[in-house]
């Protein structure tokens, strides 16, 4: 995913495009494990195709399920 953004300095403003790293490498969980933990999983209306950084199709092919995860950091 890419994001267009502007950088502002004292002298000028510049437009740039950045590649967004979703950080999803370690945010996936095995479906069998979610069932074992009895977590509430939801089915996507349409599966999402998964691609590697080089553009090839990921061996998992698609993402079909998801779950809402509440995360708290700090105090």
How many beta strands in the DSSP annotation?
4
Low-pLDDT residue spans: none
**What profile does the largest beta sheet have?**
2 strands, antiparallel
Task: Decide which structural class fits the backbone.
Answer: mainly beta
Radius of gyration: 18 Å
Could you estimate the helical fraction of the residues in percent? under 10%
How many H/I helical runs?
Answer: 1
Q: Taking strands numbered 1, 2, ... along the chain, how are they ordered across the largest sheet? A: 1-2
Rounded to the nearest angstrom, the distance between the terminal CA atoms is: 32 Å
Q: Can you tell me the overall shape?
A: extended
Residues in β-strands, percent: over 45%
Order of helices and strands: EEHEE
Mean pLDDT: 80
Domain count, please report it.
1
Explain what this protein looks like in three dimensions:
There is one protein chain. Helix content is 8%, strand content 45%. The chain has 75 residues and is mainly beta. It has one domain. The strands form 2 sheets. Strands 1-2 form a two-stranded antiparallel ribbon. The chain has a two-stranded antiparallel sheet with strand order 3-4. The longest helix is centred in the middle third of the chain and has 6 residues, at 31-36. The radius of gyration is 18 Å and the shape is extended. The relative contact order is 0.15. The model has no long low-confidence stretch (mean pLDDT 80).
């Amino acid at each position: 995913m890419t994001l267009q953004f502007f950088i502002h300095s004292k002298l000028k403003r510049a437009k740039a495009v950045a590649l967004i790293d979703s950080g999803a490498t370690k945010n996936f969980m095995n479906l069998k494990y979610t069932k074992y933990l009895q977590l509430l999983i939801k089915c996507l209306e349409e599966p999402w195709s998964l691609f590697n950084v080089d553009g090839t199709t990921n061996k998992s092919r698609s993402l079909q399920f998801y779950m809402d995860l509440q995360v708290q950091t700090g105090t």
